[in-house]
Amino acid sequence: MSEERENLTYPLFGQAVRELAQSVADDGYEPDIILSIARGGLFVAGGLGYALDVKNLHVMNVEFYTGVGETLDMPVMLPPVPNVVDLSRRKVLIADDVADTGKTLKLVQEFCAEHVDEARSAVIYEKPHSLVACDYVWKRTDQWINFPWSVEPPVVRRDGQVSGL
């Protein structure tokens, strides 16, 4: 991994999410639901929800990264897992901040595959080695990304936040 970093600021994030939403709209895709991958995807999904006028937002908690360049062996879905009845026969836009390895997005796509009419993915960043080629990408990079919501350390540090892992 290069020492250089991609730095996303809050103002640039606002521009990025609007441009990402515009690419979804220009493609003619009209999702019924935006499914965010927590935590970074929450910010993206909220912005997309407003820009695309989609009020039906769902959250899927997936744990994978434990630090800079440090991951679990495989991503793990954390409760509560979305009820598949809520997704049934819907057009879903899966939103995340980055498709790095692509393992998290792949897990969520596989979860959705049997239940939804169609699922597409939208990310701010996509890395060249991602297992998943996302449908909508704001920028491609091979650098580590400093996101504005995670560049500063937590105000408080809480033990045991990886829900029983």
UniProtKB/TrEMBL annotation:
Task: List the SUPFAM superfamilies.
Answer: PRTase-like
The protein's matches in Pfam families, at most eight in alphabetical order, are given as: Pribosyltran (PF00156)
Asked if the record carries the keyword Transferase, the reply is yes
Example GO molecular function? glycosyltransferase activity
Q: Where is the Phosphoribosyltransferase domain?
A: 11-152
Alphabetical list of InterPro entries matching this protein: PRTase-like, PRTase_dom
Task: State the UniProt keywords alphabetically.
Answer: Glycosyltransferase, Transferase
Does the record carry Glycosyltransferase as a key word? yes
Which CDD domains does the UniProt entry name for this protein?
PRTases_typeI
Q: Which domain of life is it from?
A: Bacteria
Q: Which PANTHER family match?
A: HYPOXANTHINE PHOSPHORIBOSYLTRANSFERASE, HYPOXANTHINE-GUANINE PHOSPHORIBOSYLTRANSFERASE
Spell out the protein name for this chain: Phosphoribosyltransferase
The species is Streptomyces boncukensis
